[in-house]
Structure formats: structure tokens, C-alpha cells
Amino acid sequence: MKKTSLHRYDMMLVTLLFKQFPYLLHSTNFPKEMDSLRTFLLLLIICITHLFTINAEVTPRESLATKGGFESDLIAQAYKVIQAFKKKVTYDPKNVTKTWVGKHICRDYKGFICAIRPDVNKTAVAGVNFNNNNFNGPNLTLSELIIGLKDLTFFHANSNNFTGTIPANISTLKYFFELDLSNNNFSGRFPYEVLRANKLVFLDLRFNTFLGVIPRQVFGLKLDLLFINNNNFKRRLPRNLGSTTSLYLTLANNHFIGGIPRSIGRAANTLREVLFLNNNLSSCLPYEIGLLNKSTVFDVGFNKLTGPMPHSFQCLKKIEFLNLAHNKFYNEVPEAVCRLPRLYKFTLSNNYFNKVGPQCRKLIKNGVLNVKNNCIFDLPNQRSQADCARFYSNLPSCPRPKTMTLVPCSNGNSDSELEASDLQGTTPSPAPAPRSYGALYPH
């Protein structure tokens, strides 16, 4: 099907977004109720970039092609870069590179998206989408491609076989907002080079074999999304984890040790979903988690965490998916947590909890709460009494035991429960599927 040309109004809109987006994205002057505007603007500019791919007739201004027959001199420069990269791809099961022939990049080349670069009013390659192409080659690196395409806004390359490093001068890309290198063959230390791409709002490095420590600077990037799950990162999480601006944060399926930093409470105004599951985290949960009043997903399953469940969890008024399964938590499940108004899936299986109240029992009956394999002996499918006795004879202690009963959203800021009007009495409607769990799959 033939695509339409870019109209004058469309060009004005793209120009406005390109000029204003960096300012709007990082502005700290938004009202609190507009804190999702950054994500909306990112999605809008990416959609418009895709929408205005130049795949057919062009406007009169662009009909004045360069002497070489390209849409613009920027496209002519991109042509050389693409052809050089094409030689590196020796395995292309979808025959994508067979379309990289001729001078009509915007019309014919699969995986390359064009748009008007507003400051010079010329057509440029604005995006790369290599997702699921399964490209391979003996020296399939991407540095020359990313830096050679100087007008990129995004580079998506999920499920390929890229290796090597990220270019050190990636910060020179003026409009570069998204980098997805997930499910490739990158290895070695964390790619510190991405820290120089200070305009990024989307960073996806999952399903590679990066190892070692996570630099504290990564939590200082102004990101909306940070996926680094399914690598081989080790050591403790940086203390400044709570400095992240990410709405969606996945750290799952690595080898992190130690506790969750207390600074996590500083992410209260931004963090929506966070996955810590399947690491080697230990110690007790910090009560500051209860400050995450906008979070809908919190998952620390399959770790070595212990202690009572912090009473501050009753302040997670927007939580929908709460998973503490396969750890060593103990004592009573706080009734106030079971009354949270949006709680849809609450998983506490394979711990050492020993008591649940009436509201929690309602959630068990409704299939919301799973407490299998604990120490609640009047319920089915529990641990043996001998197993529980051994555990309770030598209870792990918490470094700040008094904070376990703090309730930061209550008037007294102490061991008191929220008002009944703030809590639920019935099972909520089905919650939408969380976005971050999709990051646990490579494609």
C-alpha cells in the first residue's frame, strides 16, 4: 500500500516535538498530577517518528534531491554507514538486508525509520528497529552504526547477536532517547559508556551476560525505564538506588547480595513497578518501601530475605501485585496489608508466617492471597511443625527492629492501622497485566 506524503502541519508538529521534547522531558516544573507526561511525550514522539516514515512521494521542498539522488545529504551520509554495516551481517534469516539496496532508504530499507530533522529541515534516519531479526556475523558490532547515524532518536535491537562495546561518544547524538540491546551477546562489565548518553529515557540491557557491579551513576540517569534483569551482576545494590527516576525498574534474575537500600523511599513519586526477584538479597526489608505510594508492583520473590513484614506496607495504597514468596519472612501477616484497596495478587508462599487474621483469610478464600508452605497450622498445605519449630528457635534479627512497626502514612507514624475507609473489604476488579513482568522474557 502506498503511503502518503508528509504534510506541512505534520512537519510543524514533528519540529515542535523535537525542539521542546528534551526540555519537557527533564523539566522539574510539572505539577505532580502530570508526572506521567514524560512517558506520554516519549511515546508520542516515537509514534510520530514512525508515522512519518518517508515511503512514497515527498513534498516539493524535498523533491530537490541531492546530486546523488538521495532524499537529502543526511540520507546520503546514512547510506554509506548502512552499507558498511551490511557487510558485517553474514546471517540474516528474515532477509532484511536484501531490502538495503538503492538510494531510497526511507522507502525501501526495512528497519530504518526516517523523519524530518527540524533544525535543518531535512529528511534523516531517525530510528533503527532491528528487533527479532537474529542478525549474526563474526564481527557484529554496532558502534559504527550508532555513531554514524547521527540523527537517531532510538535504536532497538532486541534478539540479535551483537557483541563488542557501546560507543564512548554516544553522548554526541543530539536526539537519542532510547537504547534497547536486550537479548544479544554483550558481556563483561556494565557498559559505562551508556552513562554518557544523558538524554536517555529508555535503557534495556536485559538478557546479556554483563557481570560485576552496577555503577551508582546509572540510578542518576533521568530514565523512565531501566531493565537490567537476566545478566550476571553481583555485589550489593548501590545505596542511591532510590535516586532513580524510573517508572519501571527490573533487577531480577541476577546475583545481587545484601539488602534493599533504604533510599528506595526517595523514589516514591516515580516508581510504579520494581522487580527484585530471584537474586541473593538478604537482611530485612526496609520500612521505607512503604513510602512507594504510587507503586503497583513490588516483587522480592526467591531471595534470602527475612524478618517480619514491615507494617509500612499498609501504606502501599496503589499496590496490585505484591510478591514476597520463597524467602524467610516470619510472624503475623499484618491485617492492614490485606485490606489494601487494589490488592489483586498477594503471594507469601514458602516463608514462615504463623498467623493470618480475618481479612487475610477472606483473601485466601478469594484466591488473592497465597500462604502455602508457611507455619499457619489451621490452614492446609503448610510446613511441618518440626520445620517451623527449628526456624523459630533461632529467629534472624533485623538491624532496625523498631522500624518494622512504623506506619508512615498514619497520623501518629507508629504501630497503628489505617482507617477502614482507606482500606478494602472486598476483592478488587482484575488488574491489568504489569508491564515489567514482560521484561522477564527475552523477546
Overall description:
The protein has 8 helices and 20 strands. The strands form 3 sheets. A 12-stranded mixed sheet has the order 1-2-3-4-6-8-10-12-14-16-18-20, with helices on both faces. The chain has helices spanning 8-26, 37-51, 73-86, 105-108, 143-148, 335-338, 358-366, 385-392; strands at residues 112-117, 122-129, 154-156, 178-180, 187-188, 202-204, 209-212, 225-227, 232-236, 248-250, 255-258, 273-275, 280-281, 297-299, 306-308, 321-323, 328-332, 345-347, 352-355, 369-370. Residues 1-37, 48-64 and 412-426 have low confidence and may be disordered. Helix 1 (8-26) packs antiparallel against helix 2. 18% of the residues lie in helices and 16% in strands.
SSE map:
Layout: H1 8-26, H2 37-51, H3 73-86, H4 105-108, E1 112-117, E2 122-129, H5 143-148, E3 154-156, E4 178-180, E5 187-188, E6 202-204, E7 209-212, E8 225-227, E9 232-236, E10 248-250, E11 255-258, E12 273-275, E13 280-281, E14 297-299, E15 306-308, E16 321-323, E17 328-332, H6 335-338, E18 345-347, E19 352-355, H7 358-366, E20 369-370, H8 385-392
Helix pairs in contact: 1-2
